[in-house]
């Protein structure tokens, strides 16, 4: 909602800097996207008068103009606009001017002719394409005849007005109107509003009800009012109205359409105008769409209506408008229109929202109907629009409003107490202060001791419970004025629970085994959800699924992994190894809510290890997959795991599947997916496993104990031994470990020599021995003693000679 501060001044006296006003709105009411003026950054753009024009001698589309800007000499400006005409006042950017995009205008030559400036279109001085009147969309803009030569154009075009762009939340739909915003600001700044209210003083003797018959289903349209304006002349709106519209982001079209948009912005009340003469039978009916009914809307698209769903307004020939969303082309106002049937209504918000979403027709009107409108001003908005159309179009109102349905809004009464308000806000407000806040908001309030009985006006339909009133007090009192206290709590070190540790360890182990993590949807279709199950279960189906592929809560993880495998294979990724940890949903037939169980599953296809120049590739098979499962369970400390041939899994290969048992308890299976399933997914031979991780978590585990790395320095000794060719390295290494002493940590063979310096039946093996203690720094004497002892043992056992 783009709010003009100048328009606001018509309703509430606010002498506040626009930037400060925007900040106050954001702190108190709704978010502000930006605050700006179209004139910001522009300069030396003035009113000019085209005295004459002549064709450029070297161009078929350029014209040479003599332009008067109120100075002694005329300016010569070359312009190529197709609608350029003499005796018109135009927008002139002088040499040195800055126009939109920070473009600087210079004195230049265009095909040999001097151009001392630029005649501008609205877009060239910063107007968005969507708000420029269609008459001037492809050319320059003509200023009013009373514009003074040489003056800046900003005030004539409304570019000097500050605009505050509000991001209105759904609960504050009252601020989707200028009057609603003015009421809010009056409450914030403790000011009085001064709204004008239309008074019909002249009507034709002919009654509206005699010209049109309207039948309404009050459930679809609780309020439906119509006025008729006769002898209307369609023409361009006056500049003051056009300025208000384009500053609000709306394109001016003609005086009738512009008035309905103006009232929409002013009151927040959507209106629709029909060409009265195009209404078949002079009858309108508000009803639901019928089977096979179609409507060509104002955007010239033919739409298939949903029977029993879409609210339509119909005449005797069929639908002429989608209620609250968009009008129909057949009864649209055109240049030949002379009589207007003007509608103001309140429609079923739920149906309007569903229709707008179904037909992708989200409009300013539908947004307001969805969020709510002020039902107490429907008739007033209709009168204001009808009077303005009659005034601008030289028309005449028929007598009285045609009331097809009318629901008077009932005031909402909310009771709260001073104690409750102060308790929630942490304040010590008095009865007088709170009562004053309610009055500033326009609420009727009565007090009894410290209790407040508050009557909410129809303009604030978002308030219905005591918590809403407390929020209003906090807003108007000022969030910055509320006392701030730090929460009191005991700080404890954070840590994972046992369950979380096992789950994270499971993921780490599978990743270390070469699998990548996948995250699949928790919802799938009923067929896929019912496959690969570890236990019998009823399906958990959604009442309102988001699509036909996401109707049922999953009862296995493998189906989602097979979708991921198929996705990769379809994109030429042949080698896939994925795992997923997540929950499946089991339910007994007599249960409403399913039981959530932690599972882990994997899916592998293609090659598990790629080959290279000295190693062949390793394809995924049953034993590779089984080995991953064994590695996982063993690393988690699970003992007594058994694998038993399985034949009861319909979705698995009967000869290549094994059930996994923990003692006597079934916890999962591993094997090859049935070829028919692989064919369905469009994948090659694929191996999977799925394990009930919940049972693994609950099973007692054999914990491994690890010794920390020593923080003390290590000492190394190198030795080369000449031994017979028949002596193996492993034998010598084991001897070092067996007799090297308690400080020997590692033995490393780092060189083997056979050559002319040794006899033919001998070889030289060079070793590095590393000594390190866990609790002290070793001395050379301690290491030398152990080293000499083990060397002596090696020499004796292998007839080795130290080189």
TrEMBL record:
Classification via CDD domains: PheRS_beta_core, tRNA_bind_bactPheRS
Annotated GO biological process: phenylalanyl-tRNA aminoacylation
EC code(s) of this entry: 6.1.1.20
Residues of the TRNA-binding domain: 39-154
Top-rank taxon: Bacteria
Domain FDX-ACB: 710-803
Chain positions recorded as Mg(2+) binding sites: 462, 468, 471-472
Gene Ontology molecular function: any one: tRNA binding
Domain B5: 409-484
Reaction(s) this enzyme catalyzes, per UniProt: tRNA(Phe) + L-phenylalanine + ATP = L-phenylalanyl-tRNA(Phe) + AMP + diphosphate + H(+)
Subcellular location, principal: cytoplasm
Record's keyword terms, sorted: Aminoacyl-tRNA synthetase, ATP-binding, Cytoplasm, Ligase, Magnesium, Metal-binding, Nucleotide-binding, Protein biosynthesis, RNA-binding, tRNA-binding
Cofactor(s) demanded: Mg(2+)
Claim: DNA-binding is one of the keywords in the record: no
Protein family: Belongs to the phenylalanyl-tRNA synthetase beta subunit family. Type 1 subfamily.
PANTHER family in alphabetical order: PHENYLALANINE--TRNA LIGASE BETA SUBUNIT (PTHR10947:SF0), PHENYLALANYL-TRNA SYNTHETASE BETA CHAIN AND LEUCINE-RICH REPEAT-CONTAINING PROTEIN 47 (PTHR10947)
Complex formation: Tetramer of two alpha and two beta subunits.
Protein name per its UniProtKB record: Phenylalanine--tRNA ligase beta subunit
Organism this protein belongs to: Liquorilactobacillus nagelii
